[in-house]
Amino acid sequence: MCHLRHLKRKKMIRNLIIIGLLVLAYIFNSNVAESIYPAAKTDYSEFLKYYDLRNQIYAVMFFLAFLFAFFNSRGGVKAIATFGVFVSFASVIDKVFYNFYQFKTTDWIIIGIGLITAIYVYYYERKNRRI
Q1: Contacts with 114 (C-beta within 8 Å, 6 or more apart), sequence order
Q2: Could you tell me the end-to-end alpha-carbon distance of the chain, in angstroms, rounded to an integer?
Q3: Does the pLDDT of residue 3 top 90, yes or no?
Q4: What's the rounded Cα separation, in Å, for the pair 122 and 131?
């Protein structure tokens, strides 16, 4: 019993560290972008790069937050997190690797696949009585 309590405590500490890092990334997102693009306040082309970097950081943060929720939840919350993982991962790929920031037709496909997968996860969790 003591070993189980120790494992739960370690998981709680790990979760708090991950959540803390995500909160710090959110708070200092602008500072990181400003340190990389210091002329963003006066140069419009630098501002666009600064803004794109901030969007990329936000996309990665949302992906990590949804991934964290997926691995630490059950039932309906896990289904919603599944959808969030699909959509945010597609956003990371678009923004970080392809520098594409507009909504496009393929995003509808990703939303559809994410929705179908979320429904599957929900019914799987329900079937196995994890809800």
Answers
A1: 82, 83, 85, 86, 87
A2: 25
A3: no
A4: 9
DSSP sequence for 67-131: HHHHHT--HHHHHHHHHHHHHHHHHHIIIIIS---S--HHHHHHHHHHHHHHHHHHHHHHHTT--
The burial of 58, by beta-carbon neighbours within 10 Å (0-12 exposed, 13-18 middle, 19 or more buried), is given as middle
Note the pLDDT tens digit of each residue in 85-103: 999 998 888 888 887 777 7
pLDDT higher than threshold 60 for residue 44? yes
Q: Which long-range contacts (CB under 8 A, 24 or more apart) does 12-16 make?
A: 15/68, 15/72
Burial of 110 (0-12, 13-18, 19+ CB in 10 A): middle
Spatial separation of the C-alpha atoms in residues 109 and 98, rounded to whole Å: 18
Q: What is the CA radius of gyration of the chain?
A: 18
**Cα separation values, 48 from 24, 32, 78, Å:** 23, 15, 36
